[in-house]
Amino acid sequence: MHKYKKHWIKFTAAAALSILAAAVSHPLSANENMSADPTTSGTAKSVPQPAMPVYTVVSCNDGDTCKLRSADNTQIKVRLAGIDAPEMGRKSKKKKKEGQSGGKEAKDFLNSLVVGKTVTLKSYGTDAYGRNLAEIIINNESANLKMVAEGWAEVYRGKGPRGFDVTTYQAAQADAMRNKKGVWSLSDYESPKEFRKKNRN
């Protein structure tokens, strides 16, 4: 009989532990009649985030610089962060500077991608020329990354802005090079950085 009682005590103790474990893992089951109101349940309320400012793209001068207009009609100039497109030709009173192969095509592609569209910006501050460094986001996709993926810009070879994740861009460029997209199909293509160095004067 004594042996039987010991087994019974062990069984009831195990059952109690099992019930307790179930209550801990499903806390709401023990409080089914509690209100779902977050103020009574102790759950922190989510704070609504402010809406991102939206812009309309007015024009793109080349494959990596665009003019945008805000909702209050303010115009800003944006340098597409993390990328470098072929240089366009320049005309001045002194002389005409030749552009690179692929420069016009890069400009035309970017214009067809963003001009007249409503976009948001992922900002990375300003560059040495006072231009806004940013990713132009259209339909939840980066126009900067699209330029690289389609071969109309390369990954910027200088120091990138703080917080900019270049790894996705490098993968997109490797794919564009492998498939000879855009500038990577040109026999006379050279990096815009090298082109600028040779034509600095």
Q: Could you state the order of secondary-structure elements as H and E?
A: HHEEEEEEHEEEHEHH
Strand line-up in the sheet with most strands:
1-2-3-8-7
Helix content: 25-40%
| Residues in β-strands, percent | 15-25%
What would the CATH topology of one domain be? OB fold (Dihydrolipoamide Acetyltransferase, E2P)
Assign the CATH class of one domain: Mainly Beta
Task: Please specify the SSE layout and strand pairing.
Layout: H1 2-25, H2 38-41, E1 55-60, E2 65-70, E3 75-80, E4 83-84, E5 90-91, E6 96-97, H3 103-114, E7 118-126, E8 132-138, E9 141-142, H4 143-149, E10 154-155, H5 167-178, H6 192-198
Parallel strand pairs: 3-8
Antiparallel strand pairs: 1-2, 1-7, 2-3, 4-10, 5-6, 7-8, 8-9
Give a written overview of the molecule.
- The chain is of the alpha+beta class.
- The protein has a domain at 55-194: Beta Barrel (OB fold (Dihydrolipoamide Acetyltransferase, E2P)).
- It is 33% helix and 22% strand.
- It contains 6 helices and 10 strands, in the order ααββββββαβββαβαα.
- The protein has helices at 2-25, 38-41, 103-114, 143-149, 167-178, 192-198; strands at residues 55-60, 65-70, 75-80, 83-84, 90-91, 96-97, 118-126, 132-138, 141-142, 154-155.
- The strands form 3 sheets. A 5-stranded mixed beta barrel has the order 1-2-3-8-7.
- Strand 1 and strand 2 (65-70) form a beta hairpin.
- The longest helix has 24 residues, at 2-25.
- It starts with a helix and ends with a helix.
- Residues 1-42 have low confidence and may be disordered.
